[in-house]
Amino acid sequence: MEVVIAPAQELAVLAAEAIEALLRRRPQAVLGLATGSSPSQVYDELARRHTESGLSFAQARGFMLDEYVGLAADHPERYRNVIAADIAERVDWPADQVQGPDGLASDLSAACAAYERAIADAGGVDLQLLGIGTDGHIAFNEPGSSLASRTRIKTLTTQTRVDNARFFDGDVEQVPTHCLTQGLGTIMEARHLVLLATGRHKAEAVHQLVEGPVSALWPATVMQFHPHATVLVDEAAASRLQ
Ligand code: F6R
User: Average pLDDT in the 191-195 region?
Assistant: First the structure.
């Protein structure tokens, strides 16, 4: 596991550089997309590179990590809409080449299985962007998740719903209780994992991720087994590293 400690803007540039290098080498690359605060500067940097130096997503495929269950199709916090606004619609990415698990499906288990097949049919994810929850989740694999898990329905912890209330007018009651999420086993099949974490509130999770024993209690620790994992953290998020 490679750990880089730098200011947030530099971390975003490093992540964007890795994505640009991949897309220039392989325009039809498969990108794994995270939502939330952590990747937002990366998406800004990619949009800038699209406008200023012609970085193209026209042939790329995108797979989101997760989706809330039951949010209305036009809800601004539905992750499909977040990804459209944060990156896909700011670049030349055809809408049908970016997919997420279907949190509005009548059969959620079938939707999860279909999502696994879609990722496999695309040849797997080349580069997976990740954030980390304060409780150590990646995607929405909350503590206790099987390290071998696949895309499935999960209950969000109270901690995650409180953390995400900031996207729902500060009202935790508006945060959905369930989600569909890629499993840890699914994420581990991506060829390169790039995790971003900034801020002191992430310091304990980053400490566990890098230095803790591998355990389902801190799901991100499974990344210690990955052959190509890059952890990009600012000084505050790195403050508990030995
Ligand atoms: C979002 C996701 C989550 C977030 C994590 C950190 O698609 O999968 O694991 O990455 O909750 O969220 P932020 O970046 O908002 O602190």
Answer: 99
Considering its fold, how many domains does the chain have in total?
Answer: 1
In which domain, by residue range, is 219 found? 2-233
Q: Which of 42, 140, 195 best tests ligand 1's pocket when mutated (most atoms within 8 Å of CB)? A: 140
User: Which atom number of ligand 1 is nearest to the Cα of residue 199?
Assistant: 16
Residue 67 backbone dihedrals phi, psi, to 5 degrees: -155, 145
Under 8 Å between Cβ of 182 and 149: no
18 domain residue, yes or no: yes
Is 239 domain-assigned? no
Please name the residue ranges forming H helices in the chain.
8-25, 40-53, 79-86, 108-121, 158-164, 184-188, 203-211
pTM value is: 0.97
What is the Å distance from ligand 1's center to 188 Cα? 17
Predicted local distance difference test score (pLDDT) of residue 98: 98
Kindly report the CATH number assigned to the domain that includes residue 193: 3.40.50.1360
pLDDT band at 94 (very low <50, low <70, confident <90, very high): very high
Output the residue whose Cα is nearest ligand 1's atom 2: 139
Query: Does any domain span residue 216?
Result: yes
Could you tell me if residue 238 is inside a domain?
A: no
Reported ipTM: 0.99
pLDDT tens track for 140-155 = 999 999 999 999 999 9
Q: Are strands 178-181 and 192-197 parallel, antiparallel or unpaired?
A: unpaired
